[in-house]
Amino acid sequence: xxxxxxxxxxxxxxxxxxxxxxxxxxxxxxxxxxxxxxxxxxxxxxxxxxxxxxxxxxxxxxxxxxxxxxxxxxx
Length: 75
What we know:
Helices cover 15% and strands 27% of the residues. It has 75 residues and is α+β, with helices and mostly antiparallel strands. Strand 3 and strand 4 (52-53) form a beta hairpin.
């Protein structure tokens, strides 16, 4: 299983704060995010795996934590 944590406005967009998902096959972040539940997620979403920013090509393993966050701006 992989834990997906959803932050800020993405929590409202997806309707959940966290979910447990089976490890996808092949076990990449891109395949996980291809799940229909993430269809409304904007392409500019920031994604972290185990608290480190990650590209969608990263390989996942059992027990990983994926975080979905909107981009931050400010000044």
